[in-house]
Amino acid sequence: MFFAIKIKQKCFLAGVLWAIGLLAQAQDIKVELGKTEIALNENLQVILSSSGGQLSEYSFPDIAGFSKQGISSSSNMTVINGSVSQTYKLIQNYRASREGTYNVPALSVKAGGKVYRTNAATVRVTAARQYSNPFDDFWSTEEEDPADFVSGREDAFFAVTTNKDEVFQGEGFNLTIAFYISNRNQAVLEFYEVGQQLTEILKKVKPANCWEENFGIEEITPSMANLGGKTYRQYKIYQATLYPLDDQPVKIPAAELKMLKYRMARTQSFFGTGSTRDFRTFYSKPKTVKVKPLPPHPLRDQVAVGNYKLVEKPGNNNRLNTGQSHNFLFEITGEGNIAAITEPPLNKRPEFEFYPPAVRQQINRANGVVYGDKVFTYQLIPNEPGTYAMSDFLSMVFFNPKTAKYDTLRPQTKLFVQGESRANNAIRDNDQGGFYDAIDDEPNELASGQRLDMLKILGNLVLLGFIVATGVVVFYKRNK
Hints:
Number of helices: 4
Number of strands: 31
Oligomer: single chain
Helix content: 10-25%
Distance between the termini: 114 Å
Strand content: 35-45%
Radius of gyration: 35 Å
């Protein structure tokens, strides 16, 4: 009897990273090793990064003494004067089997048909650190059919779960599709065409009224989970954070996953123990996530939803002169749907000229959390001397689902402007009356010099016509 689950197949699932019309660029790829001193319950990371294009056809090596723990991803987007650049990162996590010092050789990582190498390093693994356990997930059991168990009793189930039962509109929740195997399982099970099955599963369960941030699971690797007092190996095949776009309930129907199950012969023949295989279908339970509308507010349909804070970066100096160009950075950072954050409303006043901001955003997806930052860089020119609070020009209202309240991000920066007023310059720049007034003052008749010039032009045209005609006649007579 085998007390194991066979995993013979790797499934490559396309990670969904916003399609926002990136410009074609030369791809620059590099690989590096993360921190080399970790606890036993922390990950050693191999980081593959690319600028100018998404990473494809990549693979990470095995490391002696470590087991693979899955891949996390992040992306960084910058928009300057309409030009878009993007940086992607894939992080392969490894977990050490014991404490100690490991000599990790230079690692070869394949990406885009080429091989990239890290530097060799010494990794020190210390005792495990104590953390609070955030795992609190829904799980379901399935009524077992005794007819399915010929040689080994299975203790496994398939589940499509969410980490929240109720959210506000725009608040994220995690959707996880996974297969669970108990340590007491006696059946020999094997994944079957996971990639094709996942495509069909997502057609059923992925809601149309949600924005998706996909964690991009590229290969099936087990992780331990304690559910109902029992230890399971969890095999995630899909995970994403979903953000409801309206206040309608998110309905996730039941789905099915087909597995191969091996039946072992009761007796051993001369050629050894024979086996046959059959299909076993596992079913998840349906799930509904209730979506609450945002509380009444004049900007309820426009605000970002998340747990955000403002990082102020006033630029090179907050003391400047009138007419002097200045950059002001309005950086929003935190957990939420970073991609949905729009440009903060601008209160335009004659004291300053504001130009459309350059935009940069970075989205990280790791450990079941989507977080990042979005930076709006404004170029401004002061027109009037004085002291100005930037909160009079820029602010952003958002809804925090953790406190269930609206909040406003207001910069605390003040700009001190000295110099002469540019109001008269602006009037002169916009005053075109002198030119048009001169037109009204001029007579609507040709001057004597102008009449003479016109007569010369007409005379030259007549003379040119006579010469051409004479040439044509002479040519005709000679060739007649």
